[in-house]
Amino acid sequence: MMARIGLLGRIMLLLLGSLSLMVLVTVALDGWQRRQEGPRFATRFPRVDQAASIMTLLRDAEPVLRPAILKAVSGEALRAEIADSAPDEAGLIREPRLERRLRRMTGAPEGLLRAYTDTAMLHPGVDPGDVNDRNQNGPIGKLATATYRLPDGRILVISAVEKHRSIMPWLVGQPLSLWVAVLGAVVAALVLVGTRHELAPLRRLTEAVTRFDGRAHQPVATPKGAPEIRRLSQAIRDMQDRIVGLLGERSLLIGAISHDLKTYLTRLRLRAEGVADPERRDRLVEDLDAMTALIDTSLGFARGTAVEVGRTAVDLGDLVAVEVAEHAVQDTDIQIADDDEQDAVVAGDAVALRRVIANLIGNAVKFRHSSVAVAVQRTGGLCRVVVEDDGPGIPEAERAAVFSPFYRIERSRNRETGGTGLGLAIAQQIAEAHGGTVMADASPLGGARLVLTLPAIG
């Protein structure tokens, strides 16, 4: 049954169920209170009416019967006793309205009985100092003590008994607003817990989709939640299958194109070598070399998301050293910072990461005026390769755009300075596949500062 109810329906059921629970608890507490207080709801003045009955009974009874009557009428609400004199009125407040009611019910003349309340039984908002001015506005407190002079001159004293046997009567006696607030908080907590439980499969799906990079399936457990979530998880699994299949087909297509293009380019180069005119031959070879380089970089960028990243330990310092040595053979002076840092070891594909470093250093060498500086750093759980030059730099407005495919700051088609516009795009692509980033900034040397950041291991 629950398997057919949607996510919205489940949340509504949780809310309605919680509200129903609140109503049931409120009704149960109200009924319990009514049973506990019994006849209090039958009349507006239960203690006054009971006290009047006791006065009438003892007034008309024989003196010898009074002890038995006193024992019988004293209970949980009132306690009756006969004294020779009136009790001390200290701490008591006269209640003329209750006295008038007692006189009407007992038929006693004025002066024979008195009724009192005390500060503990005053209604909320009543100032004990102002009671004499407010007696005409209605009762200002509950009956605390009543006295009645019997025919033999003795004084009947009736005292109210306050119950303090447990915390439950105190709790039930609290204002309804307090119970509504408490039960509302309970309802909110129940809805929150239930909603979190129903939305937990969505969080797991979000994590699986976030981890998915198109190279391999991410496990998506079949949730036992709402039908919408189950259908969504199945759709995500199907989507992963399609993406992985498409990328696999793309890899095969790229490989085939690369093989066929290089085959024809090789044939063209061989034919160009046979051209008799040296100037024409050199131009043909130069164009073929440029075409080969363009095709290699373009295919490399297209292949980037299809190549699965290896998980071997790679020392970035070693890769930088090898690449700097390659440039030293070409008489390019590159300074390597000697900061005595910890080993900058990351998990990844050494060939791909060397290509990133080669692209960053090659970019700096291409645009430098005179110097290039490279530093390998490790800070906490991150490793960085920082490449700086003293060239023209990258304008702040274009520091994000330079990582877009085929974007070039230098707009010319000059092969020496223009390039293909794919070097930094490929570097960023490989870095992101390794869980890292490549950022561009201004260098203290005056040119560009490119920073490769990767998560460290070890």
Structure description:
The protein is α+β, with helices and mostly antiparallel strands. The chain has four domains: 2-38 and 174-203; 43-171, no CATH class; 227-303, no CATH class; 309-455, Heat Shock Protein 90 (2-Layer Sandwich). It is built from twelve helices and twelve strands. The chain has helices at 7-37, 46-60, 66-73, 96-106, 131-134, 167-172, 176-211, 227-273, 278-303, 316-329, 350-367, 423-433; strands at residues 78-83, 92-94, 113-118, 145-149, 155-160, 312-315, 334-336, 345-348, 372-379, 382-389, 437-442, 448-455. A five-stranded antiparallel β-sheet has the order 1-5-4-3-2. A five-stranded mixed β-sheet has the order 7-9-10-12-11. Strand 11 and strand 12 form a beta hairpin. Helix 2 (46-60) packs across helix 4 (96-106), helix 8 runs antiparallel to helix 9 (278-303) and helix 10 packs across helix 11. The longest helix has 47 residues, at 227-273.
Q: How many domains comprise the coordinates? A: 4
**What portion of residues is helical?**
40-55%
Helix and strand content put the structural class at alpha+beta
Query: Would you count the extended β strands for me?
Result: 12
Task: Based on Cα principal axes, name the global outline.
Answer: rod-shaped
Low-confidence stretches: 38-43, 132-138, 411-415
The helix count comes to 12
Characterize the biggest β-sheet. Answer: 5 strands, antiparallel
Strand content: 5-15%
CATH topology category name of the largest domain: Heat Shock Protein 90
Can you name the CATH architecture of the largest domain? Answer: 2-Layer Sandwich
Q: Termini, distance in Å?
A: 52 Å
CATH class descriptor of the largest domain: Alpha Beta
- Average the pLDDT over all residues and give the rounded result: 77
Q: Please state the CA-atom Rg, rounded to the nearest Å.
A: 47 Å
Give the strand order of the largest sheet, numbering strands 1, 2, ... along the chain.
1-5-4-3-2
Order of helices and strands: HHHEEHEHEEHHHHEHEEHEEHEE
Q: Would you identify the CATH H-level superfamily of the largest domain?
A: Histidine kinase-like ATPase, C-terminal domain
